[in-house]
């Protein structure tokens, strides 16, 4: 019977045969574990990913190689609460890698930022128009009611010249849109006797067509915010100014302009104890009382004579010297409405605080002059100063302002109302106003409706209805520099 065990000679022959095998898995001796390869070219994927990951810094191991890191966002561009993320990966094969996030990065949330503004110093409260945080001051309530009545009356009808009716309905560029949504008969002003022989009427129709076509392209191709700003919104409001502005207004692009920090809200700076930082966001457009209007130009000249040139909340060399009105933030189709409200809200709050400061000077015994100590009038203040004790928190003479503001999301135009809720610079913003939720550039009728809508807003900015039902010539300027200024 053959022996059940191999002789030493036979064992050596089997071992030599195994070592000569081309299969690398069989080249290691069965008597000891295989030795890992030393060549850097075949380092396992898992080890390479682990060495390159920033997570290995947690256990004191420096990364094998360094790479440029992303530029950190400026502090003013974000609010607290963000955290860095750290990832780890497992390689199942050369083509399959599973990656897990160690701690998820918190995304920027406009809703969270709006909530933080409620507790900022001074505060900014944005609420639905039917849910104000507290009763409105009498002046604000009067102005709000008057503006809403004006807007409602303007939109009832008669905002399309009657002489354009046939031209609109027969125009091949409008025919499909009008067939899907016919223009209401009451939208036409048949008392307007002009015909297409009037060049101004033909020009108006051509500009409306260009706006309609631009809005269509922006919608169909998902164009960005810049395209909406300057292909749709800018020409639309420009047309409203041309037809109804009476030469008293300028449309200003303020996208690149900074706000004076004196008029910004502040929150605690978590990186520095007992310090605060400003909350800054930019908006797209606003209006200014035009230097080209003789009446306003005379006012600006008088302000320069008494060294009181800086009458707005911006730091720009021009707009800081012009009285500004309203604020407009534009987002593309399906853009973030909360982000638009955040940007528009910060702009409007700073604008109203500057006007409150000017009104305080106007109602003081001293003349309006920048030679006076600024701390005697300032509503806003530097980050770490205490509030000016000379300001009477119940002083209604410097809070009698209410200004409309707009958030435009693609085709949709939404109106808000901003007003001071205290003499120390707290601002409340109500909106969007659901009474005017059908304002859109999706149709020819909608564009004409928006033209009269903006015309009514600007008329309000010049003539403010008083509680008695009478109107105050000069509107905002009358409040800032006195009646007749």
UniProtKB/TrEMBL annotation:
Q: Where is the composition biased (Pro residues)?
A: 31-43
What the entry lists under Pfam families is as follows: PDDEXK_12 (PF20516)
Q: Which residues form the PD-(D/E)XK nuclease-like domain?
A: 184-452
InterPro entries recorded? PDDEXK_12
Identify the stretch annotated as signal peptide in this record: none
Q: Where is this region: Disordered?
A: 23-90, 363-392
Q: Which domain of life is it from?
A: Eukaryota
Q: What is the protein name for this chain?
A: PD-(D/E)XK nuclease-like domain-containing protein
Q: Which organism is it from?
A: Mytilinidion resinicola
């Amino acid at each position: 019977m053959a022996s059940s065990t191999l002789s030493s000679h036979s064992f050596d022959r089997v071992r030599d045969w195994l070592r000569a095998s081309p299969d690398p898995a069989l080249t290691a001796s069965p008597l000891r574990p295989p030795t890992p390869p030393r060549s850097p070219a075949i380092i396992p994927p898992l080890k390479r990913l682990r060495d390159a990951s920033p997570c290995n810094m947690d256990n004191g191991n420096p990364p094998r190689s360094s790479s440029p890191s992303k530029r950190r966002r400026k502090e003013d561009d974000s609010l607290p609460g963000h955290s860095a993320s750290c990832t780890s990966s497992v390689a199942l094969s050369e083509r399959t890698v599973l990656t897990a996030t160690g701690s998820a990065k918190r995304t920027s949330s406009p809703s969270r930022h709006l909530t933080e503004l409620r507790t900022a110093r001074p505060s900014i409260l944005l609420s639905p128009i039917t849910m104000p945080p507290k009763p409105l001051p009498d002046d604000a309530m009067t102005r709000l009611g008057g503006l809403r009545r004006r807007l409602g009356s303007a939109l009832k009808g008669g905002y399309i010249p009657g002489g354009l009716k046939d031209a609109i309905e027969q125009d091949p560029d409008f025919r499909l849109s009008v067939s899907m949504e016919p223009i209401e008969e009451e939208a036409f002003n048949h008392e307007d006797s002009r015909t297409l022989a009037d060049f101004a009427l033909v020009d108006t129709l051509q500009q409306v067509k260009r706006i309609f076509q631009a809005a269509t392209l922006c919608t169909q191709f998902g164009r960005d915010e810049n395209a909406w700003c300057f292909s749709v919104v800018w020409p639309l409001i420009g047309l409203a100014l041309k037809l109804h502005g009476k030469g008293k207004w300028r449309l200003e692009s303020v996208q690149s302009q900074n706000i004076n920090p004196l008029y910004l809200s502040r929150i605690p700076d978590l990186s520095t104890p007992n310090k605060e930082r400003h909350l800054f966001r930019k908006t797209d457009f606003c209006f200014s009382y035009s230097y080209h209007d003789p009446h306003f130009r005379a006012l600006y000249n008088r302000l320069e004579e008494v060294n009181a040139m800086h009458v707005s909340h911006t730091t720009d060399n021009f707009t800081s010297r012009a009285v500004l009105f309203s604020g407009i933030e534009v987002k593309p189709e399906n853009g973030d409405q909360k982000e638009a409200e955040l940007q528009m809200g910060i702009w409007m709050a700073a604008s109203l605080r500057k006007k409150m400061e000017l009104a305080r000077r106007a109602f003081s015994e001293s003349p309006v002059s920048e030679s006076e100590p600024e701390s005697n009038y300032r509503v806003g203040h530097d980050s770490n100063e205490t509030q000016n004790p000379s300001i009477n928190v119940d002083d209604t003479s410097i809070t009698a302002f209410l200004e409309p503001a707009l958030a435009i999301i693609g085709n949709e135009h939404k109106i808000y109302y901003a007003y001071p809720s205290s003499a120390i610079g707290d601002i409340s913003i109500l909106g969007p106003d659901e009474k005017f939720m059908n304002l859109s550039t999706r149709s020819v009728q909608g564009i004409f409706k928006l033209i009269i809508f903006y015309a009514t807003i600007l008329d309000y900015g010049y003539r403010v209805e008083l509680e008695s039902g009478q109107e105050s010539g000069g509107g905002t300027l009358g409040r800032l520099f006195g009646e007749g200024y």
